[in-house]
């Protein structure tokens, strides 16, 4: 049984100091196993990667038991001292002491004897003798498996090993207790469960054998990974039988023939804490009707404008596994239970997955969202992820959400560990733990990487920290002394002050150059004016065909809605600009009432940095096209409350824009007489 080294519960800040990385500051386990892999692949008697990995994992298992029992098989520090006796001692220890225990717990079989040659065993002994697994918080078996089985899982099944600092953040932010029932339904090699035990052994004086044997549960579909997780549980005096080799997504089934059904009966609505990184990927959609029919999120959802919400239909659809895992975990949690789940960023922001976010919000409370860097899962996948921290319960409309943005993840895109000038790993996950504690204690100094967002301020249920501009949030919070009123374009349209429409156009490239009338594209807009092209012009006939459909009027604002870099650029039209047609990638904004705002003031405000930041954060990419779409209605502009200031800005903008337009056209219209 693990005994606590600390009396009572520590704070997050204290636990951060208690769980410093010991050997990991100077030793990267993954790098160590990569070096081992390269040497053995070239020099051992085994050439197949999978068999080689199996042998290395047996040795790592043996090293763990050597440390646990203090038998010092691996304590020699030189090749000379190891000599020819080490392979013999190691094999004897493995066959007589280790293997029987692993056989008893269905981790290995009698056939799993050591097959690797003696020289390779000596090399492994020397490499591993430098590392103390018992004091190293990193998942050693998982690191070995990740190196030797690289590509076996990630490409086909969407399984990516969770980086250590991400695991650390999830565990320490939610602070598990020894009376919790804790589950990882996609446990892999057991990284979350492993670190939970290590952290509790330092922070909870009440850690008991009962917790280790009964309260720590894991599930994984992959047999090899389940066996590795069982091994770690065994090292920690836990119960390997609580690691299940099952298909987690079948747990909701009421089919009594399935082994998963028993897990469902024992654990549905009973779990205190879930920590997980489920498999994700668009290429591994779940297609089995016998799974999908048990999930609300396995059905098609359609928006009902009357009820102003998405409603589930009876139609089942192929669904990405991470979406089903969200529902599975929520249903396994008891009321008041919490979870940390690593998910692809698209779930948190894509318009097409708003129904998923609405489902989450309807089942409880969002505690925090942590945005992770692009390199977090590199070199295995470029998929951008965020971490959802959630508490199950009655939904509420008014509560605070902690928003965090991690900049440094501890390694680069190749997986190479990065260090700062002091020799510490360059990562911000640990700092995020401290910031969250400050938030809990009402001591958080908000900034652009850690800030508080109220549930009522969510836009389209978007849960991405990068979607919300910290400076705007500061300005829009109620402040009696503010000189500006922030009002959204959607609210202005709803009150009849302006209209926002798409520009109809279906002009083909074949008509380019057929005449002298300009056809304005998004690339022809810069610095608030039109850069007339002599190439993309159309005939009078084409112009007459479309001019009424587009219906451009003086002082309309053309706003770029689609593209790559120019979304948010705009131009105010004058009378001489109307003899043209424009591309369909524009929104046309027209001021209808001038009492509150006029076109010149609106155009000026659209150029302000605080508005442009909102525009950039509201851009999403679907397929290959970036667009702001209907999120333009959520853009808030700062209207001056003081009429004198409002008139001053309007008059200045009108004079400057009118003069620029006047002189530009006078120059272009002027012809010399020859």
Describe it.
This protein has 674 residues and is of the alpha/beta class. The chain folds into two domains: 163-467, Rossmann fold; 488-669, DNA methylase specificity domains (Adenine-n6-DNA-methyltransferase TaqI, Chain A, domain 2, Alpha-Beta Complex). Helix content is 38%, strand content 17%. The chain is built from 24 helices and 25 strands. A nine-stranded mixed beta sheet has the order 3-2-1-4-7-9-8-10-11, sandwiched between helices. A four-stranded antiparallel beta sheet has the order 13-22-18-20. Helix 3 (49-69) packs across helix 5, helix 3 packs antiparallel against helix 7 and helix 9 (164-174) packs parallel to helix 18. The protein starts with 11 loop residues before the first helix and ends in a 5-residue tail after the last helix. 41% of the residues are buried. The model is unreliable at 1-27 and 151-156 (pLDDT under 50).
